[in-house]
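LAB NOTEBOOK - FOLDING QUEUE
OPERATOR: T.R.
BATCH SIZE: 2
PURPOSE: Compare the predicted structure-token outputs for two unrelated chains run back to back under identical settings.
PRIORITY: normal
REVIEWER: second-year student, initials M.K.

ITEM 1
FIELD SEQUENCE / FIELD STRUCTURE:
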Amino acid sequence: MGGKKVNKVVLAYSGGLDTSVILKWLQDTYDCEVVTFTADLGQGEELEPARKKAEAAGVKEIFIDDVREEFVRDYVFPMFRANALYEGVYLLGTSIARPLIAKKQIEIAIAVGADAVSHGATGKGNDQVRFELGYYGLKPDIKVISPWREWDLTSRSKLISYAEANGIAVPSHKRGEPPFSMDANLLHISYEGNALEDPWVEAREDMFTRSVSPEQAPDQATYLNIEFEQGDPVALDGVSLTGANLLAALNKVAGDNGIGRVDIVESRFVGMKSRGVYETPGGTVLMTARRAMESLTLDRGEMHLKDELSPRYAELVYNGFWFSPERQALQAAVDHTQAFVTGVVRVKLYKGNVIVVGRKSPYSLYDEKIASFEDDGGLYDQKDAAGFIKLQALRLRTLGVNRSSFKINEQRRRDLLTY
């Protein structure tokens, strides 16, 4: 608690037990005014109770912002343009929400004259890094308060005792050990911890909230047409939609078809392995459709370079470096490739699967006449392939001759040594 006195702090506040305890703890420990910020990221919860709880705690400045469109437009879609998958699997649903929350907290801090910001992330996870790299990247002189790294409320029972001693309501389902922790937004919902900590144990079916199991999905396939403009989805089955509305609509239809569940063991930035279960129905469909659109409209060199850059981009997002110059540089390179990623992709959703069945674009690089096994009218001279192959094979033939000779000489030397 050293350093200069804190006068006002902006807290990322959900209204749940943990952040309600944090709010009171900040008031008691730092003797400061607390400003709360609650973001509507499409988590599907009523946010007005958070306002009432903040008011009851004596908070005078309460911010509740609907940031769903900004979240999808300025964070989710740019990340998807990069085809970002962390460790080849994770669609980064939690990771991509943190920089937006951090940005809003800093904007509020500047507007209300706060000298500190605070979050509810624990000292073991990635979110503390993501929040704080965002804070410092946007306002280098901001003071950051991380209660989980400072207080002595190191167990659930201590947290509940503190809440009860300070008149903070404790929901009945919070009194026992919670089965897992959850984080939700419009892109995904995550489940981690406790009952999920053994990576050999299958997640319970009644845990999932955004998708049915593939076994329970309809026996009839669902077809969708997804329209893209310059890399971003803009319409579903011919109906133009905002980014947030399109993603919400995809979440519903994909979830109904058992799509978007992943169960992974991931490498946290802080050094440990962690098991997580995620539901990302709409995002899973979008990623598959986007790749199909790019297969038609991107040059081979563009596509393959993107495939090299995507893991690096995903790692930067996962580790919290959204506001870093290297992420911004990668974004510029990625966005440059998207100018002609425009057209329609038709997908079939069936029992947990997303199957591409059609794609078309005014900028298609696919030439049916050249690719055809029928007469192409002289567009492609098959005899040209002979010279192409010989040039490609030149170094292999050179290696073969050189190293075959070496092997023969080496064998001859060994034969002589046996006598």
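ITEM 2
FIELD SEQUENCE / FIELD STRUCTURE:
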Amino acid sequence: MASSSLYQRELAAAVKAASLAARLCQTVQKSILSSDVQSKADKSPVTVADYGSQAVVSLVLKMELPSESFSLVAEEDAGDLRKDGAQDTLKRITKLVNETLSTDSTYNISLSEEDVLAAIDSGKSEGGPSGQHWVLDPIDGTKGFLRGDQYAIALGLLDEGKVVLGVLACPNLPLASIANPDRDASQDQIGCLFSAKIGCGTDMQLLNGSTAKKIHVSTIENPADASLFESFEAAHSMHDLSSSITQKLGVQAPPVRIDSQAKYGALARGDGAIYLRFPHKGYREKIWDHAAGFIVVSEAGGVVTDAAGNDLDFSKGRYLDLDTGILVTNKKLMPLLLNAVQDALKEKSLSTSLL
């Protein structure tokens, strides 16, 4: 069991950073305009909030944890914001960042546009097996964000290549379980924050700061009773393969499709028992898409592996090089899930070779 004081300052800083970034994202989501959307090389939508969130997290971590060796592995860089025509966007981001930080009475600063660009660009670290590296997805689930649906600010810390803490801020996730389709959504308290530290379990609280409580993954042992999470976007995961696996397991419930690492949080508290992610061929998983979710589930008693049952390795830089996909469930279900996955993959390979 890890010492309860180990990484405590870092976890407190991460909670503060992710909570403030979530506040900025909520402000933007309420007033989304088509002009907020920029284009990236992979054509996925990225917003003013994406850049603003990254700037806020970077700045808060640096202010809370002064260090000469600050390292942040993050999704965005400020290249596009330095181009001609981006001045209005940069101005808006700078205003948002200053307004967000001013909501915290401990910060009395006024940042210039250059300060904000530098904060965004501090996320260019490559990570790796040595030292400490923060890992950030400033808005995980940008399509969900643009739809007004689920997204997460996902922040983790690597120490010598291992994930030692993680925070998931999920502004649109109800505090109550989403597993019950008949629940009265009008009664929901909305906005969850999940936090986990190695050896200390996983906590959940309202984003606005309610008392944290320990959570645990589902204890279901019979796959027929298990409900399953997968990506909302078919482009993000092979739904046909997931369907084949659930048939082999005898899963009765239809899949729950939600965006972002909010799935990891929902699974960590037992809303569902299985999460499958099978990216299309050629896609390389990034460490920021899984680091925070990985420890939130692991510390809640769950297991996260690749499709061959190997542990995820976050020590190799910005990418997770893994076998085929990612499986998340509880310890009792994992052997059954692995068998079903291997059978489904063999069948898929065989049918492809016959074409």
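REVIEWER COMMENT (ITEM 2): The radius of gyration is 20 Å.
FOLLOW-UP: none requested
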